Amino acid sequence: MFRKLRWQLTFFNAGIIALLFVLLIMGTYLLSQNQMERMTRQMAQSLARDIVTGKITDLPPAWEEDKHPGQEPEIMVPPFTHEGNPPGEGRDNFPGSAVDLPPRPGLYPLAFFVEISAQGEIIKTSSFFPLKQTDLKTLVQDMLKMPDQEGRLSINQTGYYYLKTNLPERKGMLFVFQDLSPERNARMSVMTALSLAGITCLLLSLAGSLFMANRAIIPIQKSWEQQKGFLADASHELRNPLTVMQTNLEAVLSDPKEMVGNQEKWLHNIGEEISYMAKMVDSLLFLARVDSQQQFLSKDYFSLHDMVNMVVESFQTIAAAQEKSLDYEGRDKVSCYGDEFRMKQVISILVDNAIKYSPAGGRIRVGLEQIGHVAVISVADNGYGMEPEHLDKIFQRFYQIDKSRSKGGAGLGLAIAKLIVEKHRGIIRVSSVPVQGTIFRIHLPLSNPVTVVN
């Protein structure tokens, strides 16, 4: 069950992270693509504006920089000169010859242009013209048919951005073409980098999700195991008194003619087990409320001194009947804000345990003093004590040092006491020495939460 839950949590978290990364990568790619398209458009518009205003008269070849992959280096001779002379009359008649090539504007790599007259005749092309002369007229005819002033087209399997603009003085049109190979290469580089980053992040998110799922499963698994143990222990503790009651009831029913007075022993045993079961059920209900995060405290200001003194007085008769002394050594009349009933339950649990686990002639001392903003309640006895290995376990549910239940407990009292003290932002500690006795101390903040130091 937990293995399946672990993988479900892992894939769920990894799926969410992967979705976020996909959205991030798509957004980054679209943003970069839009930025590159905008730069290409601005470059073409700027080139057209410079040509129209006369700032640029030609775009000569840039030698190796203008080569396409696999293309041999050459200087393309424009099909028409600046004077409109037909090709073949000498390269020295136009600024495209090897002698007088002007420096190419660095802002417009892999760009060329074509000027046509109002009648559709070719007037001029840039010195750099990456097409064959036979393709020029076809290109011009296709451009004249295109309704859009700008867009994208493919020439000899190479993508170009085109821009059409009017030539007001010469009454013609200017076609500007910008090679999209750099944009395509940059876009592919961005996509490759984003894909590698996405795959890496996906693997890292999967590993991180598995790690977090393992950590999240630990308290769930621990709680599940505790719940199973709790139910098993509760079933065991409830089954024992039922068995005793059934046995005693069978003894009573075995002789129906016997008088009630003669059955007092069996009836007394049944009554004790009923009392034990009632106490057990109350404890289980209390723990169930705590586990379900229900509010079980009713807080108000009360006298901690009077409450502790009242508990001690109520147990003094029980202690005296067992030849044990119980004394209250409260020094300060301390008042506290909390649930008086639940704190009374805590002191009762500690005093009751001290009486149970003290021999005849033993002495139990209950103390109360105020140290700063902390009330310290102590319950000490000179009884049997506990071995060190039990000290960190006695606050666990159903934990019993005496497994035989000879002392009449179910192992829930100290667990309940610890929960109540912690709900009051307090701390409960225990120290014990075998044969010498045990001391329980409760540190209870009186106002704001404070840190209690050992």
From TrEMBL:
The chain crosses the membrane at residues 12-31, 190-213. This is histidine kinase. It is found in: Membrane. InterPro entries: BphY/WalK/GraS-like, HATPase_C_sf, HATPase_dom, His_kinase_dom, HisK_dim/P_dom, HisK_dim/P_sf, Sig_transdc_His_kin-like_C. Pfam families: HATPase_c (PF02518), HisKA (PF00512). One of its GO terms (molecular function) is phosphorelay sensor kinase activity. One of its GO terms (cellular component) is plasma membrane. Residues 233-448 form the Histidine kinase domain. GO terms for biological process: cellular response to phosphate starvation. It catalyses: ATP + protein L-histidine = ADP + protein N-phospho-L-histidine. It comes from Formimonas warabiya. It is an enzyme of class 2 (transferase). Its EC number is 2.7.13.3.
